Amino acid sequence: MNHLIRFKAFQQQVTLSRREICREVFTHHKKNITIKREKTLDKNLLRIFDAALTISNRKGFKAMSMRDLSRETGLSMGGLYAYFSGKEDLLEMLLRTGRTTIQRILSAHVDPVLHPVSKLRVAVQTHIFLSEVLQPWFYFSYMEARHLAPAHKAEAKAGELGTEKLFQDILEQGRSKGLFEVLDSLLTASVIKAMVQDWYVKRWKYAKRNVGVDQYASFVISCVERLCLAQSERQAHAELYAGASGTMVE
Amino acid sequence: MNHLIRFKAFQQQVTLSRREICREVFTHHKKNITIKREKTLDKNLLRIFDAALTISNRKGFKAMSMRDLSRETGLSMGGLYAYFSGKEDLLEMLLRTGRTTIQRILSAHVDPVLHPVSKLRVAVQTHIFLSEVLQPWFYFSYMEARHLAPAHKAEAKAGELGTEKLFQDILEQGRSKGLFEVLDSLLTASVIKAMVQDWYVKRWKYAKRNVGVDQYASFVISCVERLCLAQSERQAHAELYAGASGTMVE
DNA sequence: GTCTATATACGGATAGAC
DNA sequence: GTCTATCCGTATATAGAC
């Protein structure tokens, strides 16, 4: 059984969850939010997020002024402070929201898959596809997490190590069943993560080269399998990535 | 013949080149530098670089104020402007200097090696070792290049693509000789670069885990060879990385 | 709930003394 | 060549009108 799907199909499953994002924000930041009506809150919060990510990903969060944000959202400077208590609070809000959303969707896709070989593929593919759907969030998190206050930075690092642990666990599970051959599951998980991250960090590069997300995902999967699969398994799966550099069967 | 060395030996070869760095800066930025005496220039320029990298890598270049820089260097605010015309000029200076220095040293180590298999290993190892010696420069370049003005950003991107081309050329050279088996040399070069970069971008992670630079370099080399080497070559080299997760023969 | 106007601080850059 | 003192723009945040 092959759990891999194409990006288009994946996209249709996850784009809807924006409402859920707002609920998540509210539970963690209600003390700094003075807006009462839920409908107003949701609408403007999403505008603020969109605008903040757009501007920050262009010029950096620190360089984004409240005037920029006011102009881009259509809200006044004073009005913005009804949604967060200050820039630092906004930064934390954006990073926490991104982190929890990503983890939630990732788990939802990966957890149900049981066989280590499939699970590894699904984890890699879902991570890449998700980073495509939520590209601004991923890029922002990657670039701005280091500017958090120490306490919140620790949470961000824990999240980072968490997704790495996800890969590591799959590798060890597969190794114990004789499916994988890895020297060091922790370092292997690290390089898998590095390959996966390159997609959203260096997006300009792949755009320039006309490398699409389906192609990149299947390429990384082929690399990962070449790195991890035991000899016997590699031959069994060989035909799946042998010639197909651009496509992956559904 | 094995061209790989340990990090300690590598370090002794390259730490000296700080003077050369200053000469490089001067040729590109003399129009903005009012200092005449070479000795004063060199001494203070290096102080400024050290300080700017330290502060920026902690809080970001944008967040570093001239007052911060003044305090850290011991120079006055006014005095600083004898070495560069403004913050933007300083940013450009730091990035250009890092880029050219890195390329110079990388070429010096990689170019003399002719056999593709050795060349690939040396390229990977040198890149990782160099990023260890010049860690603040690499990290700064990685994080701040996006804040350059468009014209200079193009140069930075070109540099990035240049080192990737270095890997790609080695791969194609080796492929044409039947030493490597790679589906897509460009994408393979990309993921190699991603693995190499993880060392200096996520340094905190490896420090926490007590993974040293020799260990990381040899691990990445083993991954790269597993990804690239043709079946025949892989068996020939198997003993070099089979059990040794931490060391690489000199 | 959202706006305009403003308080207050901090930023980069420079003028002019030594 | 380097320092001190200062200019002036822009930043965040808030007070109070509507």
The shape of chain A, in one word, is elongated
**Most extensive interface:** A-B, 36 and 36 residues
Q: Please write the string of helix (H) and strand (E) elements of chain A.
A: HHHHHHHHHHHHH
Give the N-terminus to C-terminus distance of chain A in angstroms.
10 Å
Rg of chain A (CA only): 20 Å
Kindly report the oligomeric state of this protein: homodimer
**Count of DSSP helices of chain A?**
13
Share of helix of chain A, binned: over 70%
Counting helices, strands and paired strands, the structural category of chain A is mainly alpha
The CATH architecture designation of chain A is Orthogonal Bundle
Mean pLDDT of chain A: 91
Short description:
Chain A is mainly α and 250 residues long. Chain A contains 13 helices and no strands. The first copy, chain A, has helices spanning 7-14, 18-29, 38-59, 66-73, 77-80, 87-110, 116-133, 135-144, 150-176, 185-201, 203-208, 213-228, 231-241.
Features:
homodimer, 250 residues, mainly alpha, Tetracycline Repressor, domain 2, 13 helices, disordered C terminus, DNA-binding
Describe the structure.
With 250 residues, the first copy, chain A, is mainly alpha-helical. Chain A has one domain (7-241): Tetracycline Repressor, domain 2. Helix content of chain A is 73%, strand content 0%. Chain A is built from 13 helices and no strands. Chain A has helices spanning 7-14, 18-29, 38-59, 66-73, 77-80, 87-110, 116-133, 135-144, 150-176, 185-201, 203-208, 213-228, 231-241. Chain A is elongated, with a radius of gyration of 20 Å. Residues 241-250 of chain A have low confidence and may be disordered. Chain A binds a DNA duplex (18 and 18 nucleotides) through helix 5.
